[in-house]
Amino acid sequence: MDFINSIKSLISKQENNFFLLFLSYETRNIGSNMLGMFSTFFVYLQFGKSLKMTLAYFLISSIAMVLILPLGGKMVSLLGLKRSIIIGSIFLSLSNISFIFWEQNLYLWMFVNIVFLTLSRILFRIPFRIDLALNTTNENRGFEIGIIRSILSLLNIFLPFVGGLIINFFGFTGLFIVTTFFYLLSLFPLIKILNVKLYYSYSYIGTFIQCFSKERVKDFFIHFLEGCETVFSLIIWPIIIVLIFNKNFTILGGFTSLTLIATFFINLIIGKLSDQDKDHNLLKTGSFLYGFGWLLKLFAISNVNVF
Known about the structure:
Blueprint: H1 2-11, H2 17-35, H3 38-46, H4 51-79, H5 81-98, H6 106-134, H7 141-155, H8 159-185, H9 204-211, H10 217-244, H11 249-276, H12 281-296, H13 303-306
């Protein structure tokens, strides 16, 4: 009954910022799920299958985001949460379209791509997470998010497979155009949300000082280690898995779709359990299992091992 009542509650509050924010986010995710790991492999191919150059691209884009992030806080304060999210989504669309022109002038359009991508990250991620936190209740936040993500994960199951088909028939250009359409479509639910303004009080240098303050240094290193894991999961692992599947994008997309089926059930279960987990035992157990899963990936040398 909790599941059914929560769905009815969410649907009956379509004007609620929380519902509209997640509707926008998951519309955006339709494009992201189509693109998935294919974008990383595209970058890898553009650099002549050079892993060093691929890592350099992602390193530069990450450093750019870190250096501009404090200014992003000021920009969000000036624009407000709603306008920042909208502008950030537009920059994401532009960064996606810029991939199409890489073959014409690789380094020029790589620079343009990094600029657009950096602006997208700082103008979307910060205000979206703040707005989401402001519009959910502490008691049911995990369950509310779990329900919506599970429902939309079910709808998105076939998107990686569709992304692989688009590449096979229309190439990467076709995929970039289709995914950009969904990024732009995600703007419409944002029109009705409130434009809340918050003041960002830290200076540029003060922002970095806060990272190493006594109250935040532990969280800083946790997120730093999470970022290190992201390097492998979003950059190196996609290249490995595409090569394992012998560049068969359709089969690879199908494999990713199977993963999303499991994600549907896990999101719902974990979302409910997280609201009841006051001692963070769920986080500790999940971290152990997640780390063990990465160890198993060391032995993935064929598509059977990947499963």
